[in-house]
Write a structure and sequence with these properties.
about 120 residues; mainly beta; 7-stranded mixed sheet; 4-stranded antiparallel sheet; 11 strands; about 0% helix
């Protein structure tokens, strides 16, 4: 079974940076889609960024484009989110997720890590 464990959250001042990590186990050798989502108090969950495992193709939400970078280490089975120029509105619980079908249906989620700006 796929398991995802996030780390790296914390408190940072506006303008600062953080790097989130998501260690995955149980992922197949075939192609899959990994993503970061976030959810702020009282708000709906928001997609942040995604990456295709085989090609490294990345996409970003408009609110983070140019500030956040999603990356992966396929050997370590680890997903990263480098967050720069953080704003107060980036405060949320951040989740990594996996979609083994690559159609945007994320069936596996981590427990989340809190980011406070």
């Amino acid at each position: 079974d796929v398991q995802l464990v996030e780390s790296g959250g914390g408190s940072v001042q506006a303008g600062g940076a953080l790097r989130l990590s998501c260690v995955a186990s149980g992922l197949p050798d075939s192609n899959y889609l990994m993503a970061w989502f976030r959810q702020a108090p009282g708000k709906e969950r928001e997609w942040v960024a995604s990456i295709i495992s085989s090609t490294g193709t990345r996409k970003y939400g408009d609110s983070v484009k140019g500030r956040f970078t999603i990356s992966q280490d396929n050997v370590k089975k680890t997903l990263y989110l480098q967050m720069n120029s953080l704003k107060t509105e980036d405060t949320a619980v951040y989740y990594c997720a996996a979609d083994l079908t690559c159609v945007g249906k994320f069936g596996y989620w981590g427990q989340g890590t809190q980011v406070t700006v």
